[in-house]
Each structure stands twice: as C-alpha cells, then as structure tokens.
From TrEMBL:
One of its GO terms (molecular function) is metal ion binding. It comes from the Bacteria. SUPFAM superfamilies: Bacterial exopeptidase dimerisation domain, Zn-dependent exopeptidases. The keyword Plastid does not apply. Gene3D superfamilies: 3.30.70.360, Zn peptidases. NCBIfam families: amidohydrolases (TIGR01891). This is Amidohydrolase. Mn(2+) binds at C97, H99, E132, H158, H353. Pfam families: M20_dimer, Peptidase_M20. InterPro entries: Amidohydrolase, Bact_exopeptidase_dim_dom, Peptidase_M20, Peptidase_M20_dimer.
Amino acid sequence: MKLPVYPDPFVLFRQDLHRFPELSGQETQTQQRIRDVVALLNPADVLSIGGTGLLVQYGNGDAGPVTLIRADIDALPIQEVNTVAYRSQHAGISHKCGHDGHTAILVRLAASLNATPIVKGRVYLLFQPAEETGKGAEAVLHDPAFAPIQPNRVFALHNLPGFPEGAIICKPGPFTASVQSMIVSFTGQVAHAAEPEQGYNPAYVMSAFVTQTRSLQQPDLQYDTFSLITPIYTTLGEQSYGVSAGYGEVHLTLRTKSTQRMSELVNQLHALLDQLTAGSGIRVETRYTDAFAANENDPAAFAQVRQCAQTLDFPFQEVSEPLRWGEDFGLFTQRFPGAMFGLGAGEDSPALHQADYDFNDRLIEPAARMFRALIDLDHA
C-alpha cells in the first residue's frame, strides 16, 4: 500500500476529515482514518489512547529528550452552511474549530519525521479526542498507556482567525483561560399557585443569584482578577399554571486567567448562594462540567516557540493577555513544561465556532515546519 499521490495529499486528507466529522468521544472513524494514513509513514509504534485517540511514536532512543506534540480531532454540533465540495456529510455536525486542520498538520509532521528521522530520543504525536468537552486530555493522561511517556516538552497550536495568516501568536504564562461550567440546582417545595406561601418557590432566590453574580465579575483581561460569568441556561418549575414551582436550575460558564483565580471565584459564588438561601427553605446543590485548566506556558518553552518562529522567518506576535476561551491542553501544561501557541488563520476569516468557518489549508505546511523546528531544537 502506498500513500496516494495528490498535488497536496495533506490538504486532501484534511478535506476528507471535514466530510466526515464526529463529535467528542465518538471519533471512531476519524481514529481509523488517521491510523490508516500514519501506517504508511513508518512510525515506531501506534497506540490507541484516551478511548478514540491515537499516540504515534517516532524514534526508539531510550536516551535523549521526549517531546509530545498534540492535535485535537473532534468536531462540533453545528450545521455546515458552506457549499464547498468537501462539505460535511453528517447533518448537524461539522469541523467549525479547525480540528480537521490540526490533525492534518500532525500527519504532515509524521511525514517529515519519516523522511528525516530524529537523531536521539522519542517524539510522540498525540491525536487527542474530546477537546471540545474538556474530557479528552483527562482521558489521555489517565490512560495506563500514557504513564511511561513522561515528556520533557509538550506543544500544541490552535489556528486563530482574526490574526495575520501564518503569524505565530504566543505569550509566557497563561495563554488560554481557565474555564468551567457551574450547574446550580435549587430545590424547594411545590404548592398551589393560589397559596405559594405553603411551599418554597426558588424563583426569587434564582433571580437574585443570577443578578448578583454580575458584582463578582472583572471583565477586563488586563487585571489578574479577570473573571467572566456568563449565564447559559435556566429552568424553573413546569408549565402547569396552578402550581407554584418547587425546583429550578441555573447554568453558568466561568472564565478566569488562572486556576487559582477560578478557585477563588467558585468560593465567592458558594458564599453568595449561602447568603441568599439562608432561612429560605431552599436547598442548593452545585456540580461542574466542561472544565478546562488554564494553559500555563513555561517560560523556556515560550522562548523556544519564539526562537523557532524567528529562525523560520515567520511573523511572531507576543500578546499581552490570554485568550478568553478554554482549551484542555491546559491539563498537559499544568503537568509538563510546554507551550500552546496560536497560528494566524487570516484577519478576514470567520470566527471559530461560527457556521461559515473553515480551516485555512495554507496553514498546514508552515505549521508542520514550526513543530519540526521545535523538535529539532531538542533532538538534533
């Protein structure tokens, strides 16, 4: 079996992934497509990991550095509106964050590692599932197959619409926000709507809670206390107009610069709930979902990113504030020295998660070169 000869096989591979997107945790066909193509590129080993992910190894040296490069592979529950020839064939699902492009970049990097092997150490290419739900990185890190890896450096990128095409965007310290969603349930007691005093209706406590969360916000990113609280969803009672409600929920998404600030914000929200429900007869329970640790770029790894961008003569932009969205690669940078950087997708590109977004295929080659330069810096 030979790698098909195309004018650009990596662009066509990306477009093939785009045709058949899969949601977080369901990337079985995506996993097989990646496995089929990397098998042609002579890896030292290929392992299933994190459920529907793949870990591809190059180099066999026990001595020398260990570098991990990650790409995410999942799609989003968004209906494709573009009319490109490779438009999504799965109704209501499409690659609107560019993970198809990130995957193609890593396949291109695999081709480079096959053509010019590293001299020492090992390189692992991680095709990670379930980034959009914040569960994929955790699944990989908890997989027994990952335990022996212990990388010295971890790197990842994300394409960034709104920045000049091909520019490398990075900063030391926090690069993406700490994000999690908070679900608060309010349990009271139903009563007749004519006699609401006979029950405990959580409506007013819920309303006060949502309104007063605004006082806990600091929406300006220039401050270390940056905190953004976004109401996402609420429900209360039933459409039964003779019944005073006895149960409701409020769902919020929280964003901060750091994991420490997130912990402080959660404590403030719990204190507010205690204050509002004291003596009300309303019982409150909280749970959390879709958690993303802040990406903390190691200073030395950041310096490597900047050095490689300059060596390749790629435009480099050091931003002063972190991006406001979450990225579960933060779990890797919390545990291992490394960095995430951005790759400008073009100033006129539609934004991520918009229905008319599409990955810029011109980024595949320079992104692979950037990753290869980072590898060669340590593995020469």
